[in-house]
Amino acid sequence: MTDAKSQLTAHLARVAIRNLLGHPRRTLLTSGAIALGLASLIFLWGFNEGLHRNMLGNFQNAIIGTLQIHRQGFFQQPDLALTIDNPQQISEALERQGITRYSQRLDTFGLAASDHTTQGVMLIGMDPLNEPKVTELESRIGIGRFLQPDESYALILGATTANNLQVRLGDEVIMIGYDRYGAMIAESFTLVGIITSGEMGLDSGMAITSLATLQEMVDLQGQVTTFVIKVDEQRLPGLVTSLNDELTGQQLEIMPWYSMFPVMKEWVTLHNGFLYLFLGIVLFIVLAGELNTLLLSMLDRTREFGILMAIGTSRRQIAFLIVVEAVTIGIIGILLGTLLGSLIILLTGTIGIDLSTLLGSTSRFYVDPLIYPQLKLDHLGITASAILLASILSGIYPAWRASLLQPVEAIRNG
Amino acid sequence: MSEANQSTIIQTRDLHKCYWVGTMPYPALHGIDLQIRSGEFAVLAGRSGSGKSTLLNIIGGLESADRGQAEVLGEDILKMGNSQRSKFRLTNIGFIFQAYNLIRVLSARENVAYVCQLQGKSKQQSLEIANHWLHEVEIGHLGYRRPDQLSGGQQQRVAVARALATEPKIILADEPTANLDSTTGRHLIELMQRLNQTLETTFLISSHDPDVKQAASRLIKLSDGQIVDSWDEIPQPPRSLEATCPLRNRPFTERLRHLFTPRRKARQQNRQRTSRHS
Ligand SMILES: Nc1ncnc2c1ncn2[C@@H]1O[C@H](COP(=O)(O)OP(=O)(O)O)[C@@H](O)[C@H]1O
Ligand SMILES: [Mg+2]
């Protein structure tokens, strides 16, 4: 651009901005409406993010972890014949990836029996030392305690199961199962803890003892069926790829949470879908609102545009004036809205939003009633660009209309 | 002003203009042959509706004509494209309208500076030029006021300053005193006259204000879209309506309507005829 040309552009932009300043009420109302829309978008998106994080976190932390490794086919059909051949190799691979939060398990089925009745359960042997690094099962035990190292034949049951069996802490529970050869075995356990999470999947059908105990019971000393790993969500896809590379040919399945429980992923996707729909609606409202303001303000400036054209302003320059107005309104709205939205999130993100009165029975979907909305830079970027785009679009139509004005008609009718 | 250095600056030949309201043609100008020489203070007089504004707007390149030529500074303004015309207006013509001429949100000096900045001058320089011209029109002290803080006469002075700020050869003023009381109007005319003499800018002013006519170096009488020598003269009726209002110049939408209407009517009539027979 030549010097004169850039000066001219700056001049027209200044006139456009003077127009906005000259009508402060109109400008503030439009920008304010945009800001409110944007702030609510940012907040909702952040809340949604917090909700998902909370839900997924709870879901993973309860028992399944972020990632599990088993022998090929074990997840579909848990079978003691499908133990991991070389657990040492997996541990080393994980250590090489810098993963320290992992634990080994032995998973099988069993029948829990008390004096009164029996119930089928998932029988899990956990490493009492490493398990707390991966899951927060310990915190879900409302009655009694978690397993202790070097403790044999101690048992943890879900509250529902314990109720059905009518057993209390310290009572004896007989676990009946099959060993690695398919022979039926029965051992006596002492109940040391009861899981009272309120989550259906945890409170019923779960029996947990120490890894060593279960290995001894089913005669699989030193063998495991499952690695449970905890990593940050962002690391997950990369980790899956590199573990697949490192452990190739071992006949292992490396399953992130969403491969094991695709419903959870679908739920998140569905939720996001609704959110994007809402984003679209808000954008549309912003667009319509700004378009309306610009068209109205044009209507009462028709004569002025005619005069501007008569004294030598070109059609393109008139169009430029209007687009600059639209974009400036948009930018003011974006600045105010981003500020407001971020403030709301930072505030609610530190103290949390308590949904316990609203949720109640939803807790079985692993939602903690305290939600911490998350402020994410990419949300701010995306919403700001969307609003900017919407305001450019809302300027284009009035600009086009104005550029079609006949100066004489405009002066006569305006 | 001596006759010798007066060259032609505006020349129209056989200028025709017609307005269409629906399918009805309204002839506004027929056969205007007008010559304005450089430095004139010419006044277009005529009753309301006689075609003054139309003629000024055509000369200023704000409106098209149906027939004829309008040469301004030797160039046929009717043959120019939109952007060429607006550039031409910016450099060569200053416009003053009846009222509400100014940009509401800009101060007086910013209004004047606006056109200089459109020409690509810097803000600083433009504001200096604006100050100069505001002093010329004797309201140098009001430069920081916005239009709504100025009286009608003061606003018209700002408009004059703005029209002059690009140092155009021609000023076109459409009834500049119509919204002013007679004293204020007289002062404005005196000012324009003085500027005409000192700057040698050509003024073409439309008005039916007697004071303006009085000040004219030449009075052009317009009656029913024609130039007459005296008000007693009854203008010649147009040779034919088609000469002033050629159908081909009818707006496209009207032509479409014209095309479709008879056929629809014909169809309707056909239907009526067949239903009567059955
Ligand atoms: N946009 C228009 N549509 C229809 N008729 C018009 C239009 N503009 C002007 N006219 C008609 O053209 C004639 C001349 O109008 P104008 O040039 O405004 O006259 P003046 O300025 O002398 O009052 C009048 O009869 C007027 O009614
Ligand atoms: Mg008029």
UniProtKB/TrEMBL annotation, chain B:
This is ABC transporter ATP-binding protein. It comes from the Bacteria. Residues 259-278 are annotated as: Disordered. Belongs to the ABC transporter superfamily. Macrolide exporter (TC 3.A.1.122) family. It holds the Pfam family ABC_tran. One of its GO terms (molecular function) is ATP binding. It comes from Candidatus Thiodiazotropha lotti. One of its GO terms (cellular component) is transmembrane transporter complex. Keywords: ATP-binding, Nucleotide-binding, Transport. Residues 10-249 form the ABC transporter domain. InterPro entries: AAA+_ATPase, ABC_transporter-like_ATP-bd, ABC_transporter-like_CS, ABC_transpr_LolD-like, MacB-like_ATP-bd, P-loop_NTPase. PANTHER family: IMPORT ATP-BINDING PROTEIN, TRANSPORTER, PUTATIVE-RELATED. CDD domains: ABC_MJ0796_LolCDE_FtsE.
